[in-house]
Amino acid sequence: MKKWFLRIGIAVVLLAIVAIFVVASSLGGIIKSGVETVGPKITQTEVKLSGVSLSLLGGSASVRGLVLGNPTGYKAANALEADEVSVRIEASSLLADKVIIRSVRIDGSRIAVEGTPSDNNLTRIQKNVEAFAQSITGGAAGDTKPATSGPGKKLQVDELVLSNAKLSLTLTMLGGKSVTVPLPEIRLANLGQGPEGITAADLTKRVLSSLTGSVTTAATDVVKNLGGVAVDAAKEASKTAVEGVDKATKGIKSLFKKN
Predict the structure, then answer these.
(1) Residue pair 180/166 in contact by the 8 Å Cβ criterion
(2) Each residue of 166-218: pLDDT tens digit?
(3) Where is 125: in which H helix or E strand?
């Protein structure tokens, strides 16, 4: 009899383990589908993932091939590309009303910006996100308070880090010249800590707000630096041209004197 109880116990444990792996694999597909469905509604651009790997036992997830598309009217197909995003999750919260995310780390992403430091594809996406957040909360555009209503689960993100990002700037004020510069690390903490949490729309808005702020600073610095170089080059060219005219004039005067 004891052997039968032992066998049944082992079978139950094995079934539980299998169930966990099945649920984990299903959740990965659900997360991917959810991001690709809800993301475009929030940003009004294409949002794609190559895949999601989720480990319930380890409380971790890996998001591969994250792509944030550009609004219509811009040359580059995508505004942001990240090969991999690492996420640590409180596994027990996945079935709760508020999902607790301990950390999100986006390392080595590629960000393409077109326009001016203050008016570009990222600021356009940010406006789309703010309009969506306003539509589901009824708050004023630009309000940074967490949403207290709206569809979908609430979130809590303890830490979000975007590091080692490469910023490709195509600026109209530099004649469409493209420059690639490193983007300083962006770190956000304690998002949605209260019982009301934070919605996906408000989280996206907070991230984009920090990103566009860093991009504006970087783009402004590039314009100043390259603009200064351009002015110096123009001055040098003008100086050379004047010297050349002076030399030519002196040569002509000398020729007439000889004749």
Answers:
(1) yes
(2) 999 998 888 878 899 999 999 999 999 988 899 988 999 999 999 999 999 99
(3) helix 121-137
The dihedral region occupied by 59, where left means phi > 0, alpha psi between -120 and 50, and beta the remainder, is left
Q: Return the DSSP state at 70.
A: P
DSSP-assigned letters across all residues of 100-111: EEEEEEEES-EE
- 101 with 157: CB under 8 angstroms? yes
Task: Give the H or E element holding residue 130.
Answer: helix 121-137
pTM: 0.74
Terminal CA-CA length for the chain: 130
Q: Nearest Cα to 216, choosing from 69, 112, 116, 108?
A: 116
Give the C-alpha separation, 24 to 62, whole Å: 12
CA dist 160 and 101 (Å) reads 9
